[in-house]
Structures are given as structure tokens and as C-alpha cells.
């Protein structure tokens, strides 16, 4: 096996020259380029933060990763498999925390957390014990039997994190899950999330608009430009945070230095 193949075989996630075009039915079927030859690899156990301005294709990359859409060109590999063509292979191996919590309103907090484990075919008793354990770890003891409408936004977000971790997946994907929360709650959840990912040795990709969030949740930051391609890759671990913040700001606002200063 060549050295390149060996690297690829070891990656938890790999995008190789991925292109995604959407057909615009409203505009005489013109195609719209959302992802432009995107290539990157993520090692097992690595925490990556993906940053980019609105509309640059972050969620599209995320949907390609989760196997919800198919690339137009190029290859996406997650744990060595094709997420779109082998969607069912990922059951229990990959979990997603969405921007809005996407809880089922007719299920209690406990019922929502149990859902992912149910799909894995575990026995009821084991399922319940795992779900209760995760709810407790996320500070939801006493709220197990509450329905989503009776929980605050921060609590619902905790339920969706518990639901993702309860499956014990190798890979966690988060698309701006904390952006709608107040600063303090968001901060606490970010700390909890980082700790859980590290303790459990998960591979994590976190999509965000916020530089602070990216600096906190990423060992490596990828800045996307529109259409999605990598404008900057910065290693956070062990680096000078202020210098990284400056480089990230410049990469996000290449033609607007004043805006970059204001955002800082
Ligand atoms: N199914 C689709 N059909 C047509 N165009 C799409 C589709 N999905 C996304 N797009 C377009 O692709 C571009 C990238 O969208 P995407 O949702 O990936 O951006 P984003 O970086 O996640 O933005 P935000 O930060 O606002 O969430 C946008 O211009 C969007 O209109
Ligand atoms: Mg998005």
C-alpha cells in the first residue's frame, strides 16, 4: 500500500476533491455550486471546528458527511465507508446534534434519549439504564419524564446531546447546536461537550459561526470560503490563541479588514 493510501485508510473522515452542485428548479434548472473541490481529512479522536460565513456551504458539507446528500463529484469516506451509499452501516457509529434540537414532542426526555438506542436493538432494561445515566450526567435528573415543551431551550439541547452520546457513536457531528442559547448556558454546554468528547475519545466535527466557539471546541479549525473550500487550516492545540484568532478573522473577512477589526 502506498503512503497516501495508508493515510487515507487511517482517517476517520476524508473528503477528496468533493464537488456539490444543486439544481435550481426555480431558475431554469441552472446548477449552483455549493462545494468546490473540498479536500480534508480528520484523524480518529480529533476535534475539528468548521467556521465560515453564512451560506458558504457548512451545512452542505455536514449533510454530505451524514449521508443525507450525495456528492456530485469526488469521494466522501467516513470510517472507510461511503455515507450516502451505505447509510445503514452507520447506525450506532455516527450521531448528529442539530442546530434546533429536533426532539420528538410526543416523547419524554427519557423517551427521546432512548430512541437512538432502540434503533440499535438493545433490551428495554439496558436501554433505560443507559438513557437515565446520560440524562443524569447532563444535569437533567428530575426531568426524565418531562415532555420537550416543558423544558427550556438549554435543557432540550442537553437532551439532544444525551441522545447523541447514549448511542456511543465513534463520530459526533454538531451543526451550531448552541447558537440559540444565552451566553452562559452556551458556555457551560460547550465545556460539557468538550469534556465528554475528550473523555470518550470521540471524533468530532463542530460547525459554527463563532470564532470563540471554534477556538474552544476545535483542536484544529477549518475556515471555509464560499463555495465551500478550505481558506485556512489552523492548529489550535499548543498555538498562540490570539495569533490564531487574528488569522481566522482575516481568512473569514479577506476583503473587509474593518469588519474583521469590529468583530474582534
Ligand atoms: N438543497 C439545496 N438546493 C439548492 N441550493 C442549496 C441547497 N442546500 C443548500 N443550498 C445552497 O448552498 C449554499 C450553501 O448552503 P449551506 O446551508 O451549506 O450554508 P451554511 O454555510 O450552512 O450557511 P449558514 O451559516 O447560514 O447555516 C447556499 O447558497 C444555499 O442556498
Ligand atoms: Mg448551516
Write the layout of secondary structure elements.
Layout: H1 3-10, E1 13-24, E2 30-42, E3 47-52, H2 58-65, E4 73-78, E5 94-97, H3 109-118, H4 124-137, H5 153-166, E6 171-175, H6 183-199, E7 203-208, H7 211-217, E8 220-225, E9 229-235, H8 241-252, H9 257-263
Parallel strand pairs: 3-7, 3-8, 5-6, 6-7
Antiparallel strand pairs: 1-2, 1-4, 8-9
Helix pairs in contact: 3-4, 3-5, 4-5, 5-6, 8-9
Magnesium ion binds at residues 58-59.
Structure description:
The chain has 264 residues and is of the alpha/beta class. It has 2 domains: 11-78 and 171-264, P-loop containing nucleotide triphosphate hydrolases (Rossmann fold), CATH 3.40.50; 94-168, no CATH class. The chain is 37% helix and 25% strand. The protein is built from 9 helices and 9 strands. The strands form 2 sheets. It has a 6-stranded mixed β-sheet, with helices on both faces. Helix 5 (153-166) packs parallel to helix 6 and helix 8 (241-252) crosses helix 9 (257-263). Mean pLDDT is 88; it is low at 1-7. The chain binds adenosine-5'-triphosphate (ATP) and magnesium ion (MG). Magnesium ion is lined by residues 58-59.
Amino acid at each position: 500500500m502506498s503512503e497516501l493510501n495508508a493515510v487515507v485508510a487511517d482517517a476517520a473522515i476524508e473528503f477528496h476533491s468533493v464537488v456539490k452542485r444543486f439544481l435550481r428548479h426555480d431558475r431554469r434548472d441552472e446548477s449552483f455550486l455549493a462545494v468546490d473541490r473540498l479536500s480534508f481529512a480528520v484523524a480518529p479522536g480529533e476535534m475539528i471546528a468548521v467556521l465560515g460565513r453564512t451560506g458558504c456551504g457548512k451545512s452542505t458539507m455536514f449533510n454530505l458527511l451524514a449521508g443525507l446528500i450525495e456528492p456530485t463529484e469526488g469521494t466522501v469516506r467516513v470510517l472507510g465507508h461511503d455515507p450516502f451509499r451505505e447509510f445503514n452501516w452507520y447506525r450506532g457509529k455516527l450521531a448528529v446534534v442539530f442546530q434546533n434540537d429536533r426532539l420528538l414532542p410526543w416523547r419524554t426526555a427519557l423517551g427521546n434519549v432512548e430512541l437512538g438506542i432502540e434503533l440499535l436493538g438493545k433490551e428495554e432494561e439496558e436501554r433505560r439504564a443507559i438513557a437515565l445515566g446520560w440524562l443524569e450526567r447532563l444535569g437533567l435528573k428530575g426531568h426524565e419524564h418531562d415532555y420537550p415543551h416543558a423544558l427550556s431551550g438549554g435543557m432540550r439541547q442537553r437532551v439532544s446531546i444525551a441522545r447523541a452520546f447514549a448511542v456511543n457513536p465513534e463520530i459526533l457531528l454538531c451543526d451550531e447546536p448552541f447558537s440559540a442559547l444565552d451566553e452562559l448556558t452556551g458556555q457551560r454546554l460547550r465545556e460539557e461537550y468538550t469534556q465528554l468528547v475528550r473523555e470518550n475519545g470521540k471524533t468530532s466535527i463542530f460547525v459554527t459561526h463563532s470564532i470563540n466557539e471554534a477556538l474552544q471546541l476545535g483542536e484544529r479549525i477549518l475556515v471555509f470560503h464560499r463555495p465551500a473550500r478550505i481558506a485556512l487550516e489552523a492548529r489550535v492545540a499548543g498555538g498562540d490563541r490570539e495569533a490564531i484568532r487574528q488569522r481566522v478573522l482575516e481568512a473569514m473577512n479577506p476583503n473587509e479588514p474593518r469588519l474583521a477589526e469590529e468583530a474582534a
